[in-house]
Write the structure tokens for this entry.
Amino acid sequence: MNILVLNSGSSSLKFQVIGTDPDRAAENRDERVCRGQIERIGGEAIIEVQSREGPRKTFTATLPDLLASLEYIVRWIASDESEISEVRSLSDIDAVGNRVVHGGELFAESTLVTDEVLKGIEQCIDLAPLHNPNNLKGILAARHVFGPKLPQVAVFDTSFHQSIPEHAFLYAVPYHLYRRHHIRRYGFHGTSHRYVANRYRALRSLSAEQTNVITLHLGNGCSAAAIQKGKSIDTSMGMTPLEGLVMGTRSGDIDPAIVNLVASKEGLSPNQVEALLNTQSGLLGISGLTNDMRVLLQELETHEDRRVRLAIEVFCYRARKYVGAFLACMGGAEAIVFTGGIGENSPAIRQKICQGLEWAGLRLHEDRNKAAVALERQISADDSTLHAFVIPTDEELLIAHDTVRCITEQQQAPRPARLPKVKEAGI
Ligand code: ADP
């Protein structure tokens, strides 16, 4: 099957076509047919595309909206120029898998898109006003381009974390705020945490029941997840992706009283303070230089800069603190799994995070850690009792697999699609 995976943003559209089916997924024989992204939708857009391992090509075109962008992509895929022999027309795409940021408490698993599901995604707009409307537009654009008969699946960033128990997802604020406004921890990056936990399970030949890991997704956005018996039981991001670890430009945890204090001292509105916490904080805020970890590490190599050093120290300290907290919540874990741009590519940051976790039985293998750059590898010593692994994330592949699974399940047991039940999330 050729699955078109879509990640629709406010002014961008990322896509991949993945050739897969249940057998190929089980045997790790999926095929990345093509991938690309369109940025600056709404004006003169920049389009980047790549077929298989071929060269990356860049074009520009005037693309007013998501629909025009999707039509452009589909035309390119089916054109001779793309050199993709298996997709020559619309009918060669078997299904569309869509990333959807927020599924609230409605969606604990990926689901076939129906009108009822579209309504559910719409109901979650309050929880993710910047993301869900664009995710919806992407689904509707695909419906328009491929017609309503082509199966579409929605895969939610939040659904993996729907297994988090009440005592971990409730904030200690008046309970009616949860009842009235759904104020609670949802967690994000669920597709990434689920993917790497799944890969870890496959690498170690474990059952879901035996999979007890702490996953650290460290990219521009960063989050940790405590995965017990294959299910997420806690995570660092909260009601929004602002809570938890230090990120590129996001503060992560702060005392909530700071918001009012900064607003009054700096003459800002609460909205402006929230924007400051989202876009001017984290690595950028402390270093005063950049949100880019690679640049910060290069800076430190060439000269001492106290704030750059501090930014990295605060980043690693916070990550280690969460690992310690989650070890306590889980009663110990078998491994820590690093993923995301920083987690996959930076031995120095991994080493700093793991420093001081020897008490928990973690012994990093220096050479393995140094060699593991963008590779799936164990980086702990063999006699370590708490292991560490690097597993590059692949959210698109998981979306493609979920899409195939939802379609296959429906074919095997035809029944009217309805909203899936909560508390089924797991790997
Ligand atoms: P996003 O969350 O936007 O998907 P990524 O997962 O691509 O982001 O992560 C981006 C981060 O990864 C940036 O801070 C970048 O500097 C960092 N990064 C990428 N390669 C390296 C590297 N070799 N060493 C350190 N950091 C790196």
